[in-house]
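debug: dumping io for the single-chain case to check the tokenizer round-trip. Nothing else runs in this session.
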Amino acid sequence: MSHPRGDPSTPVTIAYIAESAGVSIPTVSKVINGRRGVAAGTRARVEALIDRYGYRRPAPSARRTTMELVFDELEDMWGTEIIRGVERVARQHQMGVVLTEFGPERNAIHYWIDDTVSRRPACVVTVAQLSEEQRNQLRAKGIPFVVFDPTTELPDDVPFVGATNWSGGRSATRHLIELGHRRIAMIGGPDHVLCCRARLDGHRSALDAAGLPPDDALIVRTDLTREDGHAAALDLLQRPQPPTAIFTCNDLQALGVYQAARQLGQRIPADLSVVGFDDLPIAALMDPPMTTVRQPLTEMAAAATELALALGRGEDRPQIGLELATTLTVRESTAAPARK
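debug: decoded output
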């Protein structure tokens, strides 16, 4: 039987089989890995092409020495916690880690797929949010990947590891309500970022459960930086009716709130209670130590690495989407509101 490319020595790719069968690359990947979600007729057509062209999954033994960790931009302590979790698991499996950063302009992404293929990693853990085309390119080359903390909704067949952001937002605001606060502001993140929306929804759910009317004026959406947290807090705290507590979407924003409060002569927690999100190492070192929602970044990164390595070994995992629990860590930045 003739080879589709005229050269029997040239391996047939998943992408070629998908094109020949008139289906998507993820559909072919499901058939090859024995996963559900493919119609019987489609599965039979794909399997026939696999048999016809003699497709074989690339041998894992040829690419078991390194894995790849991909960031958009690595610039703060959040990324350090992720690297720690990935390296911990990689070390246990005697695996090297290649760290890729696209940079603020994402210039490196144009060459990343080709470079990754040439390195032949066992798997990829990507903090950078890849497009559907980029995910399909990895699938076509037989390189399994796991998305860390996705910022957008993903198709059901994309492996990911995240956290219970909604529950975290709810527990932070419920803690402030139980202390007696009624004017609780939230400095949220960009609305297009999935985890930021979930934390804000959790905050609103806690207010609703307590019978507190929503006040959109007490919600400020901004970027997840110290500078933006500082600017948002200055605006909130200088209003005629300022909040008695502020919940932020991450610890860096909360650091900005601390700076704004001190700039305005307000004491934490005597005049203002503050709750962050992430529980980065700096949270316990702040003055006063900060109450925050712990997102288990290191454990999430470790779980993502274990899942990616398992997929790289050809193991079929029944659960390819994981959410690790967030917990509220109460320190000294929250207290009952001062009596006026």
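debug: round-trip ok. The chain has three domains: 14-53, 63-160+307-316, 165-296.
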